[in-house]
Design brief:
Blueprint (H helix, E strand, L loop, with lengths): L2 H36 L7 E8 L2 E9 L1 H4 L3 E4 L6 H15 L2 E6 L5 H15 L7 E4 L6 E2 L13 H16 L5 H16 L7 H6 L1 H8 L5 H11 L4 H19 L2 H7 L8 H6 L3 E5 L2 H4 L2 H17 L8 E6 L8 H13 L2 E7 L7 H8 L3 E4 L4 H10 L3 H9 L5 E6 L5 E4 L11 H11 L1 E2 H11 L16
Parallel strand pairs: 3-9, 3-10, 4-7, 4-8, 5-7, 8-9
Antiparallel strand pairs: 1-2, 1-12, 6-13, 10-11, 11-12
Helix pairs in contact: 3-4, 5-6, 5-14, 6-9, 6-10, 15-16, 17-18
Length: 475
Amino acid sequence: MTKLAQALLSLTLHLSTIMTSILDNLLASVWNRTVNAMRPGLKSGLDLGFLVVDGKKSRKHFFVPHIKRAEHIAIIGKSGSGKSSEVKSFIYQDIRSRRGFAAIDLHDDLIPFVLSAIRQEELRSHEDLSHKTIIVDPSDAGNSVGLNVLEAEEGMNHFAKVAELVKLFETRWDISLGPPTAELFRNSLHVLSDNQLTLAELTPLLSNATYRSACMKRVKNAEVREFFEERFDRASDGMQATRRDPVLNKVSEFVTDIHFRHIVGQQKSSVSLVEAMDRGCFVLLRLSKGRLGPQALLLASLFLAQMKSAIFRRKTRKLFTLYLDEVQNLVSDASGLEMLLAEARKTAVGICTANQFLDQTPNVMRAALMAVSTHVYFQVSGSDAQQVSTSLDGGKNLAERLKNLPPRNCVVKTGHYPLRQVATQTLPKVDARYGDLVERCRRLWTRPRTEVEAAIQARKPKSDSLLKETLNDWE
C-alpha cells in the first residue's frame, strides 16, 4: 500500500471516529430531550425555575410539590450566586397564592422587597392584605408589636419553654451561668410568668425584697416559691448579688435598649403567632445587625423560640413556611435545629434555610441540614463541593460542577429523584411603594411606645426612680 493510500485510510478512520462521536452525542441529546419530554412532570408546586438539559435552559419548569415543602428545603450558595433571589422568588409565589410564612431578615435587604411585593399584590387583586401582614420592626420609633416571651398560653409546656429560654440566653451571651445562677434565672422566669410580667421586671424582682414578696403570692409552683423563700431570701446580700448580677447585667442591657424594650416589655402580646400560622399570615421580623447591634440576634432567637412554641399548638395543618437566613445564628444550640425540623414537619410547617457555607456550621447542625428533603445548591466553596459530592455519591465531576455553576444556576436534589440542574427565574419587577401598607399594619398590630412605656413604669416599685431614657433616645 502506498503512503498516499495509507494516509487516506488513516484520515478516513479518524473522520469516521469523529462522526461516530458526534452522532452518539446527537442521539444522546435527542434521547435525553425525548425522555424529559415524556417523563410525567409536576405542573404545579413551588417553581424553582427552568430545567437545564445538555447545558441549555429548556422551557420546562421544575417544581417542588407543596406537600414536600413541609419536609424542608436547604439552600446553600456563595454570595452573589443567586441564593437570595431564589428565596425572594419563593416568598413572591407564597404571597400570590396566600400561603402563610414568616421571614427573619438580619440585614434589612429582604423585608423591603416583601413589603413591596405584598403592596403590589394588593394593587393587583384589589384586596387589603394588612390583616394578614404582621411587621415586627424594632426601628419603628413610634409603635411596637408586643411579643412577651414569658406569656403563658393555653397548651404550652411552660417548663420546657423556660428551660429553652435559659439555654438560649446563655448561647447568645456566649457564657455559662453556672448551676446556681442558672437556677436563679430559671425560677425567676417562672415567677415573672405566673405574675403576667415581662423581662423588664426581672431587675426589681431580684433586687427589691418587697416587690419579690408580693410576686410570690401568685406563684403556682411550690418548689419555685420554696427556692426564693427558703434559699435566696435567706442568703446574704453579697451572695444574692453574686448570683443575680451576671443575669441582670445581661438582661438589663437588652431590655433598656429602646429598640427592643417595648417589644418584650408588653404584658399581653399584640399578636398570637398560633393564629397567625393558622390564618396564613405574613409575619416579618425586620432587623439590621449593623444598625441595631448584637442585641438584634437575641431578638431574632427569641422570635424563633416563640414561633417554635406556636408550632406545637397549631389547630390547622395548612402549609406555613419559616424562611431562616443564617439559621446557625438563630437556634439556641446545634441540636435545636434538628429538633425544630423534626417537630415542624409534623404540623405542616416547612423550614427554608439559606446559608453561604456548610463547613462553618457545627457538625450536628450540618447533619440536620443535610437530612432535609430538598437541597438547592448554587455555586459553593471547594470544601462544601467536596462534602456535598461525597454525600450524594457524585464523585469528582459533581464537585467540579458545584464549584463552577454559573450565576442563577443551581443543582437540585429532592427526595429519591435524581439530581437536576435548574436555571432560576428572573424576579418580576417589584417596585410598589408600601408606606400606606405599613401604616395600616401598625394600626392593626402595634401599640404606641409611649403607652407601653407608661405601663412598664406603672409596674415598677413605687420607690424606684423612673428610667432616665426617653422615647427620643434613638440613634
